[in-house]
Design brief:
This protein is 41% helix and 11% strand. The protein is an alpha/beta fold. The chain has three domains: 184 residues, Zn-dependent exopeptidases (Aminopeptidase, 3-Layer(aba) Sandwich); 66 residues, Muramoyl-pentapeptide Carboxypeptidase, domain 1 (Orthogonal Bundle); 49 residues, no CATH class. Strands 2-1-3-6-4-5 form a six-stranded mixed beta sheet, with helices on both faces. The termini are far apart. The relative contact order is 0.10. It binds zinc ion. Pfam families: Amidase_3 (PF01520), PG_binding_1 (PF01471). GO terms for molecular function: N-acetylmuramoyl-L-alanine amidase activity. Keywords: Hydrolase.
């Protein structure tokens, strides 16, 4: 089997615009890392050869026709192109999830492989499923073999951009794609690498990517999540951290997701875990800030408004607008305080 592997674009700013909006990562960095990991895995399989058709150093944006010519001339059986998604006109936004593309002809071989890849990635990451789609992309149009273009998350979504930069997330994507190749083409891997079970360890210890936790689950992981919810200010008044994911935990998770603008599905997947980690740690290390001595309300500006915004999960711009007011009301409701959207001494002291 011959796999032509393509990390989309080039790095180092060579391809204009293909980056996280804040400039913290080029799309190629993600694409290339996944392709590298996938290459290593594929080369453990009997009878598999690979050809990398982008510039592996990321310095040249190899023209698309040149990429497909290389794959065609080499008589590849599969063309796999890795990308990260973007939406909108340059800023961060809410578009999210995983999608996998085949050419508009919908060749049955390509569709079934794309479906396996899509399914594996969704299972491994817990991210939103945008499905298998068709597109008239040049690399799909000009390649004469089964061709797939995979979009492994949105650079323009703050949460997903964070994941795209994490080594273990890249490993998860590579493993999911590899597993799809193995089952689809009945490949035989000679190395002792896990093909089904995939629980990569995170080096920094701050993000753990594993199965998602949801309603009905029990055990220490549930308890850990409940403790993080409590530390982040999301109450579990009836049952506390009892290790059982019941309806009280479900509503707390949903409230948490709403506050942090995540998909409100009540399932603790990678994105929610990242936020829970952050939010609960932030709370522990928070310095006690004395009440500034005046009611803080709609129309106010400044450092204290920023502090409040951080506490309630609103983008801290220091301007107390209607969004901040709504978030404060949510917070007050969760905390069992009087719900007026104004930060007085009681709300302030609960927050800080
Ligand atoms: Zn791309």
């Amino acid at each position: 089997m011959r796999f032509a592997l393509d990390a989309g674009h080039a790095g180092f700013g060579v391809t204009p615009g293909k980056r996280v909006p804040d400039g913290s990562m080029y799309e190629w960095d993600f694409n290339s890392a996944v392709i590298e990991k996938l290459s290593v895995k594929l080369l453990t399989c009997k009878g598999v050869s690979i050809l990398r058709i982008d510039d592996p150093k990321g310095r040249i944006d190899v023209p698309l026709l040149e990429r497909t010519d290389k794959a065609n001339d080499w008589k590849a059986d599969v063309y796999y192109s890795q990308h990260a998604n973007a939406f909108g006109s340059g800023g961060f936004n809410e578009a999210r999830g995983i999608e996998t593309f085949v050419y508009t002809s919908r060749s049955p071989k390509a569709v079934s492989l794309a479906e396996a890849i899509q399914r594996n990635i969704i299972e491994a990451t817990g991210l939103s499923n945008r499905g298998v789609k068709t597109a008239n992309f040049a690399v799909l149009r000009h390649s004469r073999m089964t061709a797939i273009l995979q979009e492994g998350g949105f650079m323009t979504n703050r949460e997903e951009a964070k994941l795209l930069k994490v080594n273990s997330y890249r490993e998860t994507i590579a493993q999911a794609v590899f597993n799809a190749f193995v089952s689809h083409f009945k490949l035989e891997s000679t190395a002792e690498i896990p093909i089904i079970a995939d629980k990569p360890k995170e080096e920094t210890g701050s993000i753990i990517i594993e199965d998602f936790i949801q309603f009905g689950d029990k055990g220490n992981e549930v308890k850990a999540i409940q403790n993080q919810l409590l530390k982040s200010g999301f109450g579990l008044p009836k049952f506390g951290a009892d290790g059982k994911f019941g309806s009280e935990t479900l509503s707390a998770v949903k409230a948490f997701q709403k506050t942090f603008r995540l998909t409100v599905d009540g399932i603790v997947g990678p994105e929610t875990k990242v936020k829970l980690n952050e939010a609960s740690k932030k709370d522990q290390s928070k310095a006690i800030v004395p009440y500034p001595g005046q009611l803080i309300r709609l129309g106010f500006r400044g450092k204290n408004v920023e502090r409040i915004q951080r506490a309630v999960g609103v983008t801290p711009d220091g301007i107390f607008g209607p969004k901040t007011e709504a978030a404060i009301k949510d917070y007050q409701k969760r905390q069992g305080l009087e719900v007026d959207g104004i930060v007085g001494p009681i709300t302030w002291n609960r927050m800080f």
